[in-house]
Amino acid sequence: MTRTPTGRIEHEGGRPRLVITRTFAAPIEDVWAAVTEPGRLERWIGTFTGDPASGVVAFRMTAEGEDATADDVEIRECDPPRTLRVSTHGEYAWSLDLELAEADGVTTLTFSQPGIDPAQAGSVGPGWEYYLDRLVAAETGGDIAEIDFDRDYYPAMEEHYRAQA
């Protein structure tokens, strides 16, 4: 299936920021659970261990295969069910932000990566499109196995993000 990239690179104060949105015909609390509860996260991207109240959890991207290792993720802000801001520590040191808003029974999830490295945008943008489409499939009863990174995301979406960076 050919997919069209939906994300964009915005520039705020001279800093690039990747932004991708997805919508769900679901209450905000349900979408919040899909992005914060270990069992729900595992269906589309990974899982975590540890106590989020401590401010740090160990996150393992199970979607990357059995040998994926856990990395520390710092919770910078958590305001259920609207805002989650985290920083990853490990191979990739990134800031990742999720903002949720509900109107008329539809919840919009806005994912952003402030400070994205323009040299990485061509691969990182397609990667987040892939994971967010896996989230949509997991939450709408779609077939996650049908979502193919190599066929539909990278390098197919690479130029879209490179051109904006």
Automatic annotation (TrEMBL):
Highest taxon of the lineage: Bacteria
Coiled coil: none
Limits of the Activator of Hsp90 ATPase homologue 1/2-like C-terminal domain: 25-137
Gene3D superfamilies: 3.30.530.20
Pfam families, A to Z: AHSA1 (PF08327)
Family to which the UniProt record says this protein belongs: Belongs to the AHA1 family.
Name the record gives this protein: Uncharacterized conserved protein YndB, AHSA1/START domain
Organism the protein comes from: Nocardioides lianchengensis
